[in-house]
Amino acid sequence: MAMKFEKTGDGTYLLDVCGYVCPHPQIYTKKSLEKMAEGDTVQVVLDNPSSVETIVQMCDQVGNEVLERKTEGGKIYLKIQKG
Length: 83
Fold this sequence. Notes:
Elements: E1 4-9, E2 12-16, H1 24-35, E3 41-46, H2 49-62, E4 65-72, E5 75-81
Parallel strand pairs: 2-3
Antiparallel strand pairs: 1-2, 3-5, 4-5
Helix pairs in contact: 1-2
C-alpha cells in the first residue's frame, strides 16, 4: 500500500489512495489539490466509500468541482477540478 500522486498530462494528475481509510484519502486529496494550478484536474482512485462524501464536501467548501464520480470493480473514481 502506497499513496501515488503523479502528473499524467498537461494539467492532469492521478492520485491513488487505495488501501487507505479515513482521514487519509481526504488529507492526500487536499494536499494534492494544493500542489495543482487552478483549472487542473485530478483523478482520485480510492476504495474506502466513507471517504467519498467527505471529499465531495471538502471540494464544495473550498470551490473545487467534482466533475465525475463512478464505481468500477470495487474502486471509486472521482475526477476533481481545482477551482
